[in-house]
Amino acid sequence: MKNKNFLGMWVPIGVSIGTALGVAIQNIGVGIGTGLLLTLRRACWRKEKI
Description:
The longest helix is centred in the first third of the chain and has 24 residues, at 2-25. By secondary structure, the protein is mainly alpha-helical. The protein is 84% helix and 0% strand. The chain has helices at residues 2-25, 28-45. It is elongated, with a radius of gyration of 11 Å. It has one domain (2-45). It has two helices and no strands. It comes from Mongoliibacter ruber. Keywords: Membrane, Transmembrane, Transmembrane helix. The chain crosses the membrane at residues 20-40. InterPro entries: Gly_zipper-like_dom (IPR058598).
């Protein structure tokens, strides 16, 4: 169940970044998607154990 822990840690970070981005560019859907992608990619770069 490490995966659940991993998502629980990173998804809220991605959503909060994405919401801020979405407000800035007036498109919350795109912002949240981008924030999640960036956050998950960063998590992979850090080689977190999924």
